[in-house]
Amino acid sequence: MNPAIPSPGPGTIHEGSRTGAFRRALGWTTLAALAPGLGLLPTRRRGIGLGVFGAWVFGLACVALLVWTNLSGLASVAVRPGMLRIVGIGAVAAALFLSSLIAVTHTLTRPSRPSTLQRSLGAVWVAVLSFAVSAPLIVGAGYARNQASLVNGVFRTDSRSQTRPDTALFKDKPRLNILLLGADSTAIRNEHGDGVRTDTIMVASIDTTTGDTSLFQIPRNMARMPFPEGSPLAAAYPNGFYGGNADNAEYFANAVYQNVPAQHPELFTGTDYPGADALKLGVGATLGLEIDYFMMVNIDGLTKLIDAMGGVQLNVNSRIPVAGDSEGRASTGWIEPGPDKLLNGYYAMWYARSRKGSTDYNRMGRQTCVVKAVIDQADPATMLTRYEALARASKDMIMTDIPQDVLSPLVALTLRVKDGHVRRVLFVHGKDGFETTDPDFTMLRKRVQKTLEEAKAAPAPKKKTVPATTTQSSAAPSSQEPTQQASTPSATPSAQSEDVSDACAYNPAPEQP
Fold this sequence. Notes:
Helix content is 46%, strand content 11%. It is built from 17 helices and 11 strands. The strands form 3 sheets. A 7-stranded mixed β-sheet has the order 9-4-1-2-3-10-11, with helices on both faces. The chain has a two-stranded antiparallel ribbon with strand order 5-8. Strands 6-7 form a two-stranded antiparallel sheet. Helix 1 packs antiparallel against helix 4, helix 5 packs parallel to helix 14 and helix 10 packs across helix 11.
């Protein structure tokens, strides 16, 4: 007769039941990371868990509602340093709370007497889940801190300007006119004492209701730039910015930024942007527009920005020389033709500024294509995934007199610009009666007004289509000479203005026999 097998006494736990309980605890702990609060359902803290889960769902619903109904309002948080600081602190607090919730959930759901191995495995799993949940929040807090620093560094609250409008009137303005400047302010040029030369001078006139934009570009070598009638600058330069010789480079349009404040410093004692103020007044008088703000980008910074974006896709319609110039310096390679070519910052910069074998019309047209490409491709996914690099590039590249209190409505306007219609006018020597040495400013102003009227009547913008033969390339150098430098595609100089999407489309130059 077999001896009786004693039954388990009170409090005795079978190893199998202990293992099953531990596995269930790991499951509840994982649920705590995926759906905060629900991991507490099998415990006496069920009510607290349901409250946490309800708050989490409510928060997600609020964010989703803002994205759906007020994306511009949500996006404006990114340009408000005070709100960014609150977001950063909130993100850190949320990371600490969720990590603690995961740890508490595991403690309350695991077996009452876990083995040493179970304790170790549980601690490792809690650490992994806590890291997975808190790391994005900590990164987000870092983004918020860096973004606040970027906004404070670029958009100053204490800056002075003689030409900036009353920001309270921004919402009532039918058009916002922003002067876009490309400055070749490299270290070599500064060492030679030549200062800043604004080789790209462009005005973006934006319809504040629709976001439709008209771009007006003035050549860098335009002479006799006028100033507003009755202004101190008009008294100082009664014949415009002119030194008696229209071919004198020190009196070209691209020299206004540097030379006008240097020649008349007494007229710029109340501003932190003397060169920009002089150029805003001159460009405004040239085009018959009131320039509200300026934004200057240096060439080195633009290269970094495009690299930070991962490059930009541009239609290359003819072979474009890299480096070299019209004075005989040899090119180091070529940007080969092709649709939607992915160009890094270096090649995109040469796409925009190459002059060898090219006309002013070609070069200025390519510059507007780069501007349009950056607008089109600066999507939220790119901004988030490449934020750190973009923020560093932005600090290096941008100078502006746009104040912080304008940024929130400007963000809303930017979202409309991205989906709006873009037209351009390139004022080029010998085209449509324009002469750089003796411009007909009355004609220029009429063309500007005609373009703004055309922009209002233009059809809805066409969505971008990618050709079936799309290729992406960083434009490898080539040693062959180009057969032809094509004009800007779809360009019709006799027209008042042209659609930028059409002008920058893939329309390769015909090969010569």
